[in-house]
Write the structure tokens for this entry.
Amino acid sequence: MAFTIVNTPCTVPLVKGFENQNYVGLRPISSLKFKSARTSTFGRSGALFVVRACERFDGSVKKAEMSIEECEAAVVAGNAPEAPPVPPKPAAPVGTPVIQPYQLTRRPRRNRKSPALRASFQETSLSPANFVYPLFIHEGQEDTPIGAMPGCYRLGWRHGLVEEVAKARDVGVNSIVLFPKVPDALKSPTGDEAYNDNGLVPRTIRLLKDKFPDLVIYTDVALDPYSSDGHDGIVREDGVIMNDETVHQLCKQTVSQARAGADVVSPSDMMDGRVGAIRAALDSEGFHHVSIMSYTAKYASSFYGPFREALDSNPRFGDKKTYQMNPANYREALVEAHEDEAEGADILLVKPGLPYLDIIRLLRNQSPLPIAAYQVSGEYSMIKAGGVLKMIDEERVMMESLMCLRRAGADIILTYFALQAARCLCGEKK
Ligand code: PBG
């Protein structure tokens, strides 16, 4: 098995296509570990190798005091100096059939022959700058583990969260998205807590901006954490999710988030027309500089299960199929993408990630806008579970899944692995 996930104990600047400018918390070059990189990873597949342009070896040729002309004359006279002979052909195992080689004009394996060649021809790169780190927050002071998402916590907004953000920045992850666990007593059918300027999210944004002014803060725009029905919109008596009335609330929510200092608001609700309405609301309040990342193709997926447990946001009845998309649909993603583009979205998002690579590629090919992929809670938990059960190599599957999302066309990836993967890319272990 030979795949070329960049997973190296070297420093970040060696990772292909990596820009180390504008970077927060890069490991200094002095922490290079050439030795261990070369000795401990060559044999194992999956790890990258640091290739030095020239090797120093002992027994270097002793320099005779000859001019260039004398050296050339010696060669012309037929006295070429000695160089190592061509090594003998390596032996094949006994019993290997002796055959005439096939006459192939193309042998693609030639370009995969060595670590150095593979590194040269790697088409896709992965960097901590591609990651957006989703973080769950709550009012408490302790961090509480999320059962269905090993390694993830509901973080206390004043303590655990700040520490987690600092850790992420330390390995080059400078973008986060916040998901609040709202006390039940503050939930209502119309989700009005969503635009309380002193609610958990706006308060947290102000705190983070105070501590880390250059942190990029994405927010989630939808009513579900604030809705007593657990739906992304207002639910009518007969169970219908009311579109325009919900959008009205979402506009208030985004303005409140923008006022607190959010950089990118991300409507994940899948109501019709919300991107245009949100753009207008932001602009009318002077927030022209705030971007909109639209959940363009968000599917009604069972992969969200662990997330809903994390936020205790399961719909109280029914499902989300009248607003989230049918997983069987492909062309419908184009309808959504055209609308979002026309309404002024800055980034188009596809969710979930890995099971929907075709949709990522579709939007990548159809739109000049940046594309985001959300590797959702269920994808994360499956990889974690497989790792815990020792059925797969968690770290390598993690890196491969992220690389595949990039290869499919995602510019940025929202992933619960952001910190773990960035540490890996920076050469840190766990
Ligand atoms: C809801 C929202 C969901 C996720 C992000 N925003 C869940 C849902 O639609 O019920 C899911 C993220 C994940 O599963 O990781 N607005």
In short: The pocket of PBG is lined by residues 220, 222, 224, 232, 268, 304, 307-308, 320, 376-377 (CB under 6 Å).
